Amino acid sequence: MEFLDASCEAARGVSLNSALLKTILSKIILLLLLTLCLVSLASAKYSLEGAKTDITVNASGVVHVEESISYAFDGDYADIHRELKALPGESIRNVRGRCSDKACKLKIEPISEGYRLIGELPDSTPKKLTLFISYDYYGAVKVHEDVSELSYKLWGGEWEKPLKSFKGNVILPVKNESEIRYWTHPVAYTQEANMGNNIISLRTREIPSTQWYEIRVVFPRIASSGFGSVKVDEVRGLEKIVATENVYQQKNSILNSLYRKTFLFALFVLVFPLLIYYRYGREQKIVYDNVSEIKVPENSKPVLVNAIIMGNKGTPTIDGFTATIMDLVNRGYISLRNLKPEEIGSIYTPELNSSHRSESDLPYKSDSESPYTSESGFRDFMVELVNNEIYSDADSDAEGKLSELEDFEKDVLYLLKTHAPERKISWKKLETELQSGKNFYKFLTSWNRKVQVHTTFDKYFQFTGNIYIYWFARTILIASITYYILISGFFPSKAFPLASKINVLTSLIGIFGFAMIRCSGMFITIFGRWTPEGSLYYKQWDNFKKYITDLSALKEHPPESIETWDSYLVYAISLGIAKELLQNMSLIVPSEQLRESNFYPISSNYNRSEYSSGNVSTLSYSGDINREDDNTGSS
C-alpha cells in the first residue's frame, strides 16, 4: 500500500512539473514575441513629408474641405489613422477617403465629436503613401451683423511628428477680393501668402510636432440658408476681430524685438567675463629680476606665508598649523626630543599602535639614535612645553615672554597645554587625540579666522574682478528665471513659437550663471589678481621654494648655520615642501651639525645615501575645512 501511494505521488509530481514547465515555456515564448514586437516597433519610423488642404466656402456658408497627407515609412506598421473633430455647435458630414494606389483599406468610424479614419496597411508597408480625405464642415463660418468670419485649423496639434511642409488654398464666395482680410496663426510658420481671384494661397516652413496652424478670414456678409450651415449673431464683429489681430501682431513685433535683444544679451553674457578678466584679472607687471631667493624673503610668520601662498583667501591650510608648532619649537617655546626607554611603555598601547600602521607616513629610518619604533612600524618623538607662563594663573596678557607672541600662537600653546598636563606628550599621541573629537575642528575654525585677520590679504590680492563676476552671475541667474516666467506668461509658445527660442536662450543664460556661481571658487585666480606688492611677495616666496628644493643650488649657496637650516625647515613646512628640504639636509649638513638642530629628532633620521619616503607628519583632520589644494593667486 505504501508503495502504491509513493507511485501515485511520483506520477503526480511529474505531471505538476510538466505543467509548470509548459507554463514557464509559454511565458518565455510570449515574452520573446513581445520583445520582438517592441523591437520592431522601436525600429520602425515614419515621417510626415507634406500636407495640403483646400477649403471652399460656398455661398450658403458650408465649408468643403479636401485634405491630403503624405507619409514616408521606414519599417512595418499596422495602420494609419486620422481623427476629424468638430467643435460644439458644429458638425462634419459627407466624409470620404482613400489611400494612394490603393495602399490601404480605409474604414470610417463615427465618434462622439466627429469621425475616425483608420487605414489598415498590408503586411509589407509601402515606403510612401498619401491619404486623401474630403468632407463638409457645417458651422465653421460665423455671420456677424457686418461681416462673415472663417476660423479654421489647417493643421491640428495632435500629430506626434513634425510636418515638413504644408500648402493650403482658401476659396471664398466673394466678387471683390479687396474686401477680404486674413491672418494666419502662428505667423512665424507662414513662409508665403498670396491672394488672387478670391483664392488665398499659403505655404509654410516645417511645423513642429504637437503644433497647430490656422487661418482667420473676414469677408463680406453672406446670406445664410440656415439648417446649421453657419453660426449667426447680431453683433458687429469686424472691429473686434481687427483689434484682436492688431494685439497679436503687436505681440509678434514685440517678441521679434525681444528675441534680438535676448540674443545680443546672450553674447554680452559671454563677452562680459572676458572684459572683466582683461580689466581686472591680468597680472600687473613688476620689476623683479632675481632668479632665486637664497634667504627668507622677509620676516613673516610661517603661517602667514602659508595662508597667503598656499591657502584660500588668506585662510591657512593644516600645514600652516603644523608650521606654527614648529616655529614655536625653533623659537624656544617648545622642544623636541627622542623618547626615553621608560616612556615607551606608558605611551604606547595596542590602540595607539593600531591607529598608525603605515610606515610610509613617518619621517624616520631606524638606527641607534632614532626615536621609538613600534611594532606597527611608526616612529615617534616627544613634544615638551618649556615655558612656565602657560601653566601659571597669570593673565594671558601679562608681561613676559608670551607677550611677544601673536594671539594665534598663544592659542597653539594653550591647546598643547590642555593635551599635555605634565608638560609633555608624544607627537603621535597628540595627533591621535586631536583627531578623536570635534573640538579640534572648532579650534581650527576659530584659529583660522584669527590668522586671516593678520594676513591682511587684501593688501596682496585684488578681488575686484571676482566681486564683479560674483554679482554678475547671480544677477543673470535671477534675471533669466524672472524673464523666462514673464515670456512664458505673456507669450504662450503654441501661439508664439518664437517664445520657445527665447526661452531656450534664457535657459542657457541661466545655466551659465548657475555654473559660474558653482565654480566661483575656481574663478578667484582668473578674475582676481595679485597687487604689485602681492606679485612681488608671491614671486619671492616661489623662488625661495625653488631654492630650498634644489640640491645643486643649496650646495652652491648653503645656509650659513644650522639655525638657518632650522628656519628654512619651518618655512618649508608652511610651503608644503618639508620632505624635499629634509632630504637635501641629510645630504649636505654634517651629522655633528644636525645634532645641534632644534629638529634633530626629525632631521637625523633621513639617510644620507638615499631618500627616505617619509615626511614631517602633518596633523590630518577629517573635518578640516581648509583641506584645499588650490592656491589663491597666480604666478
TrEMBL record:
Residues 50-219 form the DUF2207 domain. Residues 350-375, 610-635 are annotated as: Disordered. Residues 296-585 form the Predicted membrane protein YciQ-like C-terminal domain. Keywords: Membrane, Transmembrane, Transmembrane helix. Residues 610-623 have a biased composition (Polar residues). It holds the Pfam family DUF2207. The chain crosses the membrane at residues 258-278, 467-487, 507-530. Residues 354-368, 625-635 have a biased composition (Basic and acidic residues). This is DUF2207 domain-containing protein. It comes from Methanosarcina spelaei.
